[in-house]
Amino acid sequence: MTFLPDFGQELARSRLVTHDSPVSHHPDPALVERIVASTGLTAAEATRVVEDVVAFHAEPVEEYVRRRHAHLKTYGAKNPEIFARIADELAARVVAAPVLSERQLRRIIYG
Known about the structure:
Blueprint: H1 29-39, H2 43-57, H3 61-74, H4 79-92, H5 102-110
Helix pairs in contact: 1-2, 3-4
């Protein structure tokens, strides 16, 4: 279980993909090539950019909500405005899909 730090403390969490993450550790080579061609970055730099973006968006919704709530509280925002802002952010944000069991997948398909 993740616990939030005391009020006023900074969250010191890494956004790196962990070993138990469902995200592949090797970016799609075609995507890396496209970034190299469009930006002039080296293949290693483009790979790092893709990995960073994927790691950023791999954050589960619950963690994102907790992190943003703590961050906005630190700057004095009140819950009603925080909840409205987070809801707006989530509507426009790409978020990680939840990990689904085989049973959950079957229920989605077969009802």
